[in-house]
Each structure stands twice: as structure tokens, then as C-alpha cells.
Automatic annotation (TrEMBL):
Signal peptide residues on this chain, from the entry's feature table: none
Pfam families recorded: DUF72
InterPro entries linked to this entry: DUF72 (IPR002763), UPF0759_sf (IPR036520)
Name of the protein: DUF72 domain-containing protein
Organism listed in the record: Alkalilimnicola ehrlichii
Amino acid sequence: MQPSLFADQDHASGSAVRPIHYPAAVHALGEKLPAILRLGTSSWHYPGWAGLVWDKVYSEAQLSRDGLPAYAEHPLFRTVGVDRGFYRPLTQDQYAAYAAQVPVDFRFVVKAPALITDALVRGAGGQGRKVNPHFLDAEAAVRDFAAPALAGLGDTLGALVFQISPLPRAWRQQMPRLIDRLRDMLRALPDLKAQAPDAVVAVEVRDPEWLTPEFVTALKDTSATYCLGLHPKMPPIAEQLPILRALWPGPLVCRWNVNPIHGAYGYEAARDKYAPYDRLQDEDVATRTALTKVIQGTVGAGQLAYVTLSNKAEGCAPLSVEALAQTVAC
């Protein structure tokens, strides 16, 4: 890939966390990107991004608390993933606090709580303990996710993502029933457009058994879209594209999660290998090239695109965003 565009770190700012000073070249790259393309990372609390995003090393706690305004000054970052609510639902006030820290043109990609999207209630080690009575529950989805996110984020809401965790083996034999339950949940969600004109609802899955014509019909019936999940548990982009084509025309929501070299259960291996996430270690050129084509086709047709990248994709999310932006802008 090309050398990083990030250089001079001497930047004065009144924020508790200060960004680096971005050179003209990175501003120029941001200006080349279509306005309807929103690139960003999965979160913003990584001390290892010092010199890439932050002017110096800050603690993870300080970045979680104070880093969002500095993050939003990055010329390529026009969205960010909020995954924190997966573990415990966030309140309207918590969402509103996020919205108050970013420019009016910034958008959030928000992940639904496991309370709604995991078939099992899990212990501290991730082992399923019992069946989750709130799995794909319409009332819980509105009360504990969609309503507070919409009210708190307002027009900074970009995408509500229901990332459905891997299903127990026996459940994968009952996909028609689960798809019906998913449809009922999606139908119950409030209309987003009045308060958040750019907002979309997207469903991401971790089992390829979901990818059926019936699943597509459920998404169409509820005006939802498919979240392109780039994760080793799922097929590569080329094998997920038929779902997007069946939903066309429509927006793109993509979350580039984990490099496939680590395998379906390699999240922890990727986390441990890539920390502190300060450099690219395993560039996935094939995925980047394929994703570039999807992005260019989407925004070229005038459709919104939300794409967030994880540190576990190539080793350093800011540099992955930069590399993807360079290929999209070519």
C-alpha cells in the first residue's frame, strides 16, 4: 500500500483529547470521497492510535470518555461504530451525549444489544447458559434499542444494526420460524426517516443458513437491508453479493470485522496478535478490492454507504480506512 498520509502531530486543541495535525494530502483524500460514503472504525478508544489519530498516548478510559470529538476531526472519518451497547443497552441520554460531541454531518452505526440478538443468555466466558426469552423480541427491540437510539442521536443516526449472534446447531434447522420472528421484530420498529433522514435498519448474521430467499423477502417487507458482515464465520463478499443484488436499489451497510486468516473462532487470536493496533500486519488486499467495487457501485448509483472497519481486519483500523479510501478514490 502507499505510505501513510499522517505526519505532523503538533496540534493545538481545546479538547481533553487532541487529534494530530492532518497534512493537506489526507484532507485532499477526504475531499475526493463521495459525500454519501461514510467510512469509519468500529470504535475509538485505542491508545495505540497515538500518532495516527491522537496527538499522544492517552488511556483507554480517557479515550472512551473524551476521545470522540478528536476522532470526528479525522478527515476520513464520517461515521463510527457504537458496539458498547451490545453488552448493555444504552439510554437516550447516553446516545444524546454522543450526538453532542460530533459535527452535524457525522453519523453513528449502532449495534443492537445482545439482549435482542443472541439466542442464548451467556456467562462471563461466553458459554450459553440458557435460552434468551427476548431473542428477536419486538417490544424489547423498540424499548431497549430503537427508541432510545433514535431519540438520543436524532439526525446523527446512520444505521441500526441487528447483528444476530451464531445460533445453536439445532436452531439452524428452524430458519423459516426464525425469519418470521425477525420480520415481526423489524415491522415493529419506529419509522426513522422523520427524525433521521439518513438512517437505515440493517441485519447482520453469523450463520450462512440465514441467506435464503425468505430472508431477503423479510428484509424487503420491512424496508430493512442486509449488513455485509466481513467475518470468517461468513462466506466471502462474492458469495454474499446475491443478497445485496436481490435488495437493490438500496444503501450499503458493511462491517469489516476479522481477517479470514484467523478462522471462524479467531477473534481473540486477531486481538492478541494485532494489539496495540498501531500498524497494518496482515493486509487483506482481496477483500479491500472486492469491497471497493461494492462501494463504488453503490455510491455511483446515488445510494448511501456506511462502512466501518475493525482493528482485527488488518491490524490497524485507521490505516485500513486510509487504504480503502485510496482505492475508492482512484
